[in-house]
Records
---
Amino acid sequence: MQRLLYILVYPILWLLSKMPMGILYFKSSALYILVYYVVGYRKKVVMENLALVFPQKTQRERNQIAQKFYKHLCDIIFETIKAFTISEKEIRKRFVVTNAEILDNYYENDRSILLMAGHYGNWEWSGILNKLMQHQAHAVYKPLDSQQFDALVKKTREHFGGIIVSNKKIVGVLFRKWKKGVKTLTYILSDQTPKAGAYKHRDTFMGIDVPVFTGTEELAKKLDFSVLYLKVEKEKRGYYTATFVPLADNPKEYDDFQITRMFFDALEIQIREKPEYYLWSHKRWKLRKRN
């Protein structure tokens, strides 16, 4: 069944990806009306999350954030589809790294990097990073159940030469390359929700007590990799900037979970400034501590 679905859907996605961005954004605007006003996709989850995080805001203010979020979400859907075939020239114009030169220092000093990021802005266009550095680029992902769609995701994210590795294999892959002296930069979405009972630490995220993913920090200390934060900002529709923000050059010198806290501090600043660009449709606070 999944194979049949893939056979039916893939040609449509490929044809969409070949369309100019202007047409895709026109379709995104139409999708927004359907998703927000007609279907109400995860609307209850979004409004509950916004109420939890911004209790001081009025209902009208939260509604305005939600509307802007859904417009952004629809843009992300079509930008992800565009990633199937987007050219390097076009994505370099639309996803601009402001300070790629700081990576040279890490490379010259024999430092591999773990790059922490959140579901903010556009995380699907980060594959262009591989073209901007000497490090060998990796990105961590959770494999999909469908083999066909999983292969499509990997192919899309490896469009510009990076290597996509499953979350269960990344430690072994990086350890082997570390032993061979290969310098790597590994992109990890670190605001994921750990499984119930499978986490080591709780902290606050946007002021709410929740389990937090600590695997990036633990891996950094184990392999002595530097840790950076990728600050992605949406400048206007279809255009983003990304900035490398150093968090911990020598992770073993930091207390347990301190680096994880630093990551969430950086992400929270962005969310509070422009909340509409965070992924509110996920149940990020479902395991929160309740009064």
Note: The chain has a mean pLDDT of 93.
---
Amino acid sequence: MKRTITATAAVLGILVLGACSVTASANRTVGAEQIAEEAEGALEEQVGQRPDIDCGDDQVDLVDGEVVDCELTDPTTGDEYDTTVTLSDVDGTNFNIDVQVAQEAND
């Protein structure tokens, strides 16, 4: 499977993602763990350090515009940040992602 990934994030030390939930449908799906892994890799390429991202364990519909809510944990500070991963250019099991990380850590 070929994946093209783009990442956009506010960098505070490193970036963090949160828990995601998505409902299943007749569309092709992928595990939220895979979405988290793809987002971690994209952010690592961008900032040079791999964050820990948790998007839950549900299945995510592979459709353009699908938004997955996640939580990113900064590996150096332990701070947690709300993060969204948006799917685009979905073609079968190929897709792009855009990662947005909150600028401020969760309380």
Note: Residues 17-101 form one domain.
---
Amino acid sequence: MKELRDLIKSKAEYLGDGILKADGFINHQILPGFSTRMGKAFAEEFRAQGVAGATKIVTAEVSGIAPALVTAQAMDIPMVFARKRRPAFMNDPLFEASARSRTKGEDVTLYISSRYLEPSDRVIIVDDFLATASTLEALCAIVDKSGAKLMAIGCIIEKVFENGRERLDRFNVPVIALARVDLVDSGRSFTVL
């Protein structure tokens, strides 16, 4: 997606230690028109990969909600986000899995109610970044525990230097990244691929 690549080049900052700051346009400040175009781009990419019949988009709070919502809107299907804390009102049986948070430096447990993820669902997972794939693997585990079928995985930005894509190979589904970045200059800066 050219518009995304241009924004990464002009607005993203590499902070070191694998952290790419893109919060001005994807995960802190949200640009509605641009986000809507990303959702449409995801829908088109999934169609181009032969992904059909999806019934749910799944993501993790907080940063995955915006891209997952616009993708769900473009595909006209529900979106469910995994919570990072179990609210008191979540009294249905839950599916849960743990992920390592890169930005928080700690393990986080993700929860989805069995009410909103059923064995009949056909799921696409959408998130903001593909880095180490820890969050995506946890979401895949939740989908598996629910009995639903995983159809595809999509991320706005893939940090290829983190090798997360290889960790997702075992799921045998298309993995879509709208933009890819890699480190250059002995890891002090990045380039958009």
Note: The two ends are 11 Å apart (CA to CA).
